[in-house]
Amino acid sequence: MRNGILLALACAITVSAQDPIGSDTKGLYINIKNTIMRSAQKMPEENYSFQPTPEVRTFGQLIGHLADAQYEFCGPVKGDGKQMNIEKTVKTKADLVAALKEAFAYCDPLYDSLTAASGAQKVKFFGREMTKFGILEFNVAHANEHYGNIVTYMRIKGLVPPSSERSQ
Amino acid sequence: MTRLSMLIFAAAGAASLVCAQENPETTPLKQAYNGIKNNFLKAAEAMGEDNYSFKPTPELQSFGERVAHIADANARTCAAIKGEKKNVEAASKTSKADLIAATKESFDYCDSIFNSLTDSDASKMISMGRGGSHSELSTLWGLVVHDNEVYGTMTVYMRLKGIVPPSTAGRMGRGRR
Question: Which domain holds residue A119?
């Protein structure tokens, strides 16, 4: 994954050397978005109910949680306050993959247009003021933490996570 | 997610709220770094020595190797920013005590960068060798993102051993990880 992060940054910098902060952030977002989407598609339907222990989310709930999180982070940046409840209401693999794809599509324009200048604008986030850049980076960090959960679930089920496919 | 937002702000403390007015770009980064640093070190402490060799499947790194991976990665990234050579050699260590010491050393080494970071440093370009050149802000976010991903694997290891991860401890019954 470390290589993936460096690769994401390397790709981003070649796209736009004029605004490295905005393009690097976009690179990190696209990297984790793609690996999570590919994980959701690769995990078989029967493993969506898998949870390593009873206290933790099922794989499907993790996907739902990540979809909800896109709205919770990107909603304040957009200013439309859109919130969803996918984790608790969507059950099947097909519906969860579709919801996740839609959630990332909701955030995509924010990362596409992010610059150092636009990212410095402050908005309300959970009652506090935070820069748009900070919120969008927190989204990437949060998604990576849960991708760490996902890769371990996949390994337990005998699957190679997308970020390791090239090294297998 | 609400839990995450609580951690985001809890990590900051009152002092950084003042700084937030002065350094809007780098203050969220410092908050995220302090949050993952505290969780990571607590996780390393909470796991028993006998579980440092545990790995859920043969293909995965052991818990101890996960800790070592972050200690070495952090030191490598922060050395690049400082323009120095630094190696805590965590990959060669196996005992819990030695790995925690190496991890603390790597975080301590990085602390000086985060503690003195201001928005004027954000766009300074850092060479990461084969990884190309990136802004200092993005390089440090890359470190935080990577630490979060590895911490996310460790929380599953801990749950499999019946241990509540530090990011969930204290709010039992309200959040799952």
Answer: 2-167
